Amino acid sequence: MRNRGEKAARFSAPVPARRCPFRSWIKDPAHTGPCKLHYYDIGGYLSREEKLDRIEAFGSADGIDWQTITPNAAGDWINQRDPVFDTFIPLGDKGKGSQAVFAIYSLGVVTARDAWAYNMSRTALAENMRRMIDAFNQNSRRYAILCAGKNKASCPKIEDVIDADPRQISWTRALKADAKRGKRFVFDETALTTSMYRPYTKQWLYFNRRFNEMVCQQPKLFPTPKKILPRIPYARDFFAFCKAGRELGNWHLNYETVEPYPLAEGNKRLIMEGNECRVAKMRFGKKDRMTDKTVIAYNQHLVLRDIPLGAYDYIVNGKPAIEWIMERYQVTTEKRSGIENDPNAWSEDPRYIVDLVKRIVTVSVESVRIINSLPPLNAAVA
């Protein structure tokens, strides 16, 4: 880990960047017995500057209120799993004869070339894929000409022939193998389809077995998590959880049409024109040099205020849903290919992203309300 700026230089150990854990191992020759683990949670979802400020305030390691932790049998250091979890019904299990909710499950689409195969703009995606397919066919044809009349052993390496310019094509092992076999492809208009790229973030996808490195079982079903799969407990008050689940499903499935949360809009203009609702990158506000999450600077013309802090308690895949929107709905350009992905191209409604932010605040607030209203699990053993 590299040191991070002036404040890092004041400490004997490197300061971590955002969401990066910091570990320090000290060997004491006089110590006997197992090692001791000391842990301090500096707080989640802080900026780099906020983390550095908190570390600086300690003065030294002696000023930190350490928590001693003991790993469990499963190797968990913190957030240790509850043994009762193993008694719940798994959502999926590939073991034969295992009781599970779903008989099969799968990874999501693995394109291995997201900048090419995904885009907010359907037109841009089609143009990118046409250009890449043309480049592939040219390379495949060039290799076939060089190998004409030769046996396999006499043919050059495919890597020595193909054009590896990342602005023209994104090569993978499978695509190189196709070029080596002399295959040719044509652009398929029907392969352009909508996808859920990240939570509450739709993009156009070129869904094609040749230009997606792995489609797994996506033609049959949606993906499920890979690691420790969720399990279904036997809740004593089953119908309370059933009702909450249906209500949560309604909010999440209809997130694009729910009522936008009544955030205050600070406009620099009395009337916002359509192009003045374009977003480049949203940022949180600042107050006394600290991040103010009640405020989002949408663009140079618009500021959204009065975001309830409780909305950030709704976490999706380790991040508040609101922050997923801020991260994914920004204009990006992939360095290698030079391909731009502009979220403003997703909808013809110029206020789509503005209202989406407000709608996700609504979904977050309602989700937290529903979850907090659940009765104790009181799980019964199957």
Strand content: 5-15%
The overall pLDDT, averaged over residues, is 86
Radius of gyration, in angstroms, nearest whole number: 26 Å
Number of domains: 3
Low-confidence stretches: 1-19
Total helices: the number is 8
Give the termini distance in whole angstroms: 47 Å
The strand order across the widest sheet is 8-11-10-9
What is the global morphology?
globular
Instruction: Supply the helix-strand structural class.
Output: alpha+beta
Order of helices and strands: HEHEEHEHHEEEHEEEEEEHEEH
Helix content: 25-40%
Notable traits:
alpha+beta; 15 strands; disordered N terminus; globular; 382 residues; 3 domains; three-stranded antiparallel sheet; 14% strand; 26% helix; 8 helices
Explain what this protein looks like in three dimensions.
The chain has three domains: 5-81, no CATH class; 114-206, no CATH class; 233-372, no CATH class. With 382 residues, the protein is α+β, with helices and mostly antiparallel strands. The chain has helices at residues 5-9, 48-58, 114-117, 122-147, 173-180, 238-253, 321-328, 352-372, and strands spanning 37-39, 67-69, 89-90, 118-119, 192-198, 201-206, 231-232, 264-267, 283-287, 290-297, 302-305, 315-316, 319-320, 332-333, 340-341. Helices cover 26% and strands 14% of the residues. The two termini are 47 Å apart.
Summarize the helices and strands and which ones pair or pack.
Layout: H1 5-9, E1 37-39, H2 48-58, E2 67-69, E3 89-90, H3 114-117, E4 118-119, H4 122-147, H5 173-180, E5 192-198, E6 201-206, E7 231-232, H6 238-253, E8 264-267, E9 283-287, E10 290-297, E11 302-305, E12 315-316, E13 319-320, H7 321-328, E14 332-333, E15 340-341, H8 352-372
Antiparallel strand pairs: 1-2, 3-7, 4-6, 5-6, 8-11, 9-10, 10-11, 12-13, 14-15
